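Request: Have a read of the protein record below and say how the chain folds.
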Amino acid sequence: MKDNFNISRCNICGKYYRIHPEKLPPGVISFNCRKCGSLVSIALPDDAVNPEGAVHEILVVVYEVELAQLILKILARDGLRGRVSPTGEQALEIISQSPPDAALVSVSLPDMVGYEMIDRLKETLKDRKFPIILLSSLYHGTRYKRAPTSLYGADDHIERHHLPDFLAPKIRRLIDPGPESGPMKAGPDLVKPPTDQEIDDRRELEQIHRNLVGGSDETFEERIRRTCRVIVSDIALYSEDTIRNSVPERILEMIAAEIQEGVDLLKQQFPEYEGDYHQILSNEMLDLLGSRGVGSARPEEDNGT
């Protein structure tokens, strides 16, 4: 009998893979290339990747492979079809060809911040609109006690620790708005007792976070800079009104408390770092603000002259 398989190719290194659809876990449509580590999309017919009864397609713009796969499982359990893009550029290309019914966009991506992707979508999509949910970058269940003051053009937001219990309801609310449309509130008072599956999901999220902090495939410098990008992306999400209403010269001063929170987190995760935690995080914040046209260029460091 003829073997039933499909061929997928890594766009980075060119390695080919033979994929057997019947052996794939439900909802899995991508994997890490064994040669170069980049994400490879699985070329399969729709009936091989779509859960039964799925109607809406959700574009999941998340770089971390394990997190993306968990999100696909969460979506599939609610009858939603997920498609993963690990970068903002790839997501923009996908959307230009076939806009999804909704998108979940991480605020921190390897090639751009989620806010930049939304800005570019506004420029290219025009009348073709769909709901966008921003995904905070940090897995830290008690870190933030407040909701973002602005969503940078997105329709809602969700923290990573709320993915198991709020992701599908938020998407449903935005795609099929009822009498109470708009962003769905999330918080400790609104979280129902978790199911066994949601408990397993949360444990998996915690493990994904530990693996991400470990970053075994990165140098120490790469890990700490990536973590800085993640932290400042979240600071920008939760402090947009403050940033927008501050004069450029005082932006860092106005978000000093948030920067200090980030410094404390860096010290906790990278106690062996010998540099200036505050300086490296502040520089990353200035780079992010500069990429959005906010504030002036990074001030030159004092060289003693």
